[in-house]
Each structure stands twice: as C-alpha cells, then as structure tokens.
Amino acid sequence: MSQPTIAARLERKYIAMTADEETKRRLDAVTPETWTCVAVADLEQLGEWHEILLHRFLLLDLDEFEAFDPLDVIRILRQQYQINIPVFCFGGEEDIRDEMRLARADRFFDKDEMIERLPEFFRQYDWGG
C-alpha cells in the first residue's frame, strides 16, 4: 500500500456519486476553484479504502438505482471499509432514506437543497492547506 503524501491529505476533494449530468454540472458550478469534485458511479473507481479517506465528504444521489445501489455504497463504506467520512444523501423516497439512516448515512436533502447547502460544507471542511 502506498502512503499518501501530506500534500495529498491537504487537497480539498469531495466525492459525488451520481450519474445525472445535470447534477454534475450544478455541482461543478458551485464548487470553488480550490476544491475538486470527483464524480464516480462506483467506489472502486476511487481506488482502495485509504484513497477514499483523502476526500472530505461524499454526496450520494439516492435516485441513481440504475447506476449503483446507494445501500451497497454506504454498507461498503461503513461496514467493510469502516470509513466514517460524512455522507450527505440527496433525492430519494422516504423508504430508501430510512434504510440509509439505518446504514449510518449522515444527512438527507432534496437535490436543490443539496446544491444550496454545498457552499456551507465547503466552508466547514476547508481545513488545512
């Protein structure tokens, strides 16, 4: 396992798990230049578990059952990898939100509300560097 550098640990990156192109565009529009949005549809695209830890938080689209299973994502993060980065979910019906709560997802928003709240999260997780 390669060791992440201090510089890599200080990078301001977040994960956006969505396959919706419009949502990706909206996220990019509010993402400051000092931050990087890493949009994926599969956790394996990020690399091993220690590479996921280099991201400050994860945005998880609960309407993307065609691209990935949100419950699998949270279970892999919390149970298999035992990673506790913040997971902010958006979209989805109440039943999937309830299941995600039980699987230890952190917060839930409507899609528009998630976009509106994102600058707040950038300020909150803007430590280092």
TrEMBL record:
Name of this chain's protein: Response regulatory domain-containing protein
Origin species: Acidihalobacter aeolianus
Origin organism lineage: Bacteria, Pseudomonadati, Pseudomonadota, Gammaproteobacteria, Chromatiales
